[in-house]
Amino acid sequence: xxxxxxxxxxxxxxxxxxxxxxxxxxxxxxxxxxxxxxxxxxxxxxxxxxxxxxxxxxxxxxxxxxxxxxxxxxxxxxxxxxxxxxxxxxxxxxxxxxxxxxxxxxxxxxxxxxxxxxxxxxxxxxxxxxxxxxxxxxxxxxxxxxxxxxxxxxxxxxxxxxxxxxxxxxxxxxxxxxxxxxxxxxxxxxxxxxxxx
Length: 197
Known about the structure:
By secondary structure, this protein is an all-alpha fold. It has helices spanning 5-26, 29-36, 41-71, 77-82, 92-131, 135-138, 141-193.
């Protein structure tokens, strides 16, 4: 792996992502999603994405620095801090693997939460849409107009929250995949360096 390849990959992936987000904003799609979502779930979904993205990006950069240190022949911070290579136990690879993979589990959880929040928005939207439907409103002309407005509002919430959760969840999953690739590389390279591979 070349020097700082993970950081460069992170930058390219997210420049494209933010460019697409900017294009969506220029088309008015983001404003439409925010206006249609009367529940505020779009804000929650975006907030969860930002937190997950910041955690993921900081871990990718830290992991990339560890890889550079390792490839330069220097002791990585992980090796120095943990001291797991001080003994010759056969359980050391598993301990290293657990420590490294635990680092990416939280980002995967954030990505899953985005999709789940989108699905919760779908359910909330359907509940809102169907809450205006009743036997009394169907027979009344003014009631039908209010019922249709309630249906449209609920369906807007359902569709926009699902779309936001799915798109941002996919974006964070791509970033998480980059983190997983770097973690696997660091794991195998450290084991190879210590003759454990």
